[in-house]
Design goal:
This protein is α/β, with parallel strands linked by helices and about 375 residues long. It has 16 helices and 7 strands. It is about 40% helix and about 10% strand. Helix 5 links the parallel strand 3 and strand 4. The radius of gyration is 27 Å and the shape is globular.
Amino acid sequence: MTDEATSRTTRSLRGRPRPLLISVLACVLALLATLAAQGPPPHVEAATQPPQSPSASSSPWDGSYFPNVELVSHDGRRFRFYDDLVKDKIVVINFLYTSCTNICPLTTARLAAVKDRLGDAVGRDIFFYSITLDPEMDGPELLKTYAETYHAGAGWLFLTGTPADVGLVRYKLGERSRELAEHRNDVMLGNGRTGEWGRDSAFSDIEQLEHAIRSMDPAWRSAPRSVRTTGAKATAPIDITAATGQGLFMKACAACHTIGSGDLVGPDLAGVTARRDGAWLLRFVKEPDRMRAEKDPVVMEMDSRYPNVRMPNLGLSEQDAKDVLVYLAGHATSSKGEDSTPGIGPVGGPDGRNAQSASHDAD
């Protein structure tokens, strides 16, 4: 307290018994000392210091930072967020709305593709968590359907909880969107043992995202290159001179579609150019959202068959759309189970501006 403030306090108490004056001043000074020792309130610290990848030796990103609230998985199991899901684990975390028909399905499809590349490491060394941003709607049963759509498998949990608990988890992980339209495709990468945390995008190069996830393990980072490449799924080479549209298909389509290997997240596209009118296909590749708004009967039928993933507007130019269709036309005679294109399997694509492809075309 300054001399001037002390003087004002003293004048205001002038004429009162001296013991009372001494008692009041002592209380004020004790209160100021206590507040100075406590530092800023926890909510201020959390708002100004989100995880940024601190060094392991000085990391505050442990059980004192992360909440230990209870979340429920798509298969009905209950977990404490920090103790059961984060502590001592390498994790990949994203947030989603099952009601979202654009960014969330694309992000989930991209994560399914990178999970495939990580192979047996998922569920053993690396764990995937997709947490709903709409817990009042997205209960375990709905999340189970969503998980099955993307063939989540072992090591990947879709999680919900009370709105308060989910809200605390998302806040601590830096997710600040206020509504679906503000939701981004950020993916959190973390190592609960070392305290290292970072962000990446589900739409970055698949191989690079795989590398970023594996790099959360210090042992993997320091291993010889020959060891780091062991078990990694090879990226199919793309001969851009051999097939028009092949690179674009691999980049924008292969996480959701195969050509001749059966349905994935969306339908098998083998022979699609022989089954559908060319003008209809071209427009659908360019502006499926407008055709959906117009209630095109074919689009409505496809949406009913694939309710969890709808073909979004990828922003392709007319030439890009034509190139994809040219590529698909080259496989018009392919049959299910027979992939005539080397390197295109159930899940693939070395790169991805988007995850869905030229057409969610039903048989």
